[in-house]
C-alpha cells in the first residue's frame, strides 16, 4: 500500500497564483496579481455593473461553457410562491434577480428534502435556464463551473487606511445574525465565505462589488478600470 499526502486541491485549473492572490486579498494583505494574470493563465475580471457581468457569463454559457453567479448573503431569501416562481430578492439598483430556489427542508413550514438529482441546488447548478438565479454559500459549496461571477455584497467592504470592514447589519444570513460575534470573528467568517465563492470558477472568476470604493480598489490591484461588457 502506498500512502499519499494531499497538500492542495486542484481548483481553478490548478492556477496556484490565482488561489494565492485570493488568499492574500481577503485577510488584509492584498497585492497585485502575479505573472499568471498577464499571461492569461486564469480569466479574472472586475465589473462596474452586475448587468455587464451577467451578460458576459450568459454569452460564455451559450458557447457551451458552464457559468453561474453567486453572491454574499446580503439579501433575504424568500420561499417560492405557490406557482413555484421565485421572488427577485437580490436587488442592486434596477437589476433584480432571485436567489436559487430554497430547498423544501428550509422553508416555512419545512417539507421533506427531495432526492439528490431533484434537489434545488442540483437543479440550479445543472439546468441552463437557471443561469439567472443567484447562488449563495449554501448552494455553491462543493460545486464548480467553468466561469463564476461573484457579487461582493455590502457586508464586507474595503476602506482605505483601514482594510476590510465587516458589517453584520448588512448581512441577511440567519445563522450569522443569530450569533454574537466579535468584529475579528465576523470578519474571518465573511472572508472565508467569499474565499469559497471566489474559488468556484475553473477557467475564470468575474467580480462585482456593490460598493464603489471596493470595486475601485480591486480594479486598481488589477491595473485596470472595471470591465464593461465585451
Q: Tell me the number of structural domains.
A: 1
How far the N terminus sits from the C terminus, by CA atoms, comes to: 52 Å
Give me the side-by-side strand order of the main sheet: 1-9-6-2-5
Count of beta strands: 9
Q: What is the overall number of helices? A: 8
Task: Kindly report the average pLDDT value.
Answer: 90
Unreliable stretches (pLDDT < 50, length at least 5) are: none
Measured by DSSP, the beta-strand proportion falls in 15-25%
Q: What pattern of helices and strands is seen along the backbone?
A: HHEHEEEHEHEEEHHEH
Structural class: alpha/beta
Radius of gyration of CA atoms, rounded to a whole number: 18 Å
Taking the sheet with the most strands, its summary is:
5 strands, parallel
Q: Please state the overall shape, judged from the principal axes of the Cα atoms.
A: globular
- The helix content, as a percent range, equals 25-40%
Describe the protein's architecture and organization.
This protein is α/β, with parallel strands linked by helices. The protein is built from eight helices and nine strands. It is globular and about 50 Å long. It starts with 15 loop residues before the first helix and ends in an 8-residue tail after the last helix.
Summarize the structure.
It is built from eight helices and nine strands.
Name its key features.
single chain; 230 residues; alpha/beta; five-stranded parallel β-sheet; two-stranded antiparallel sheet; 8 helices; 9 strands
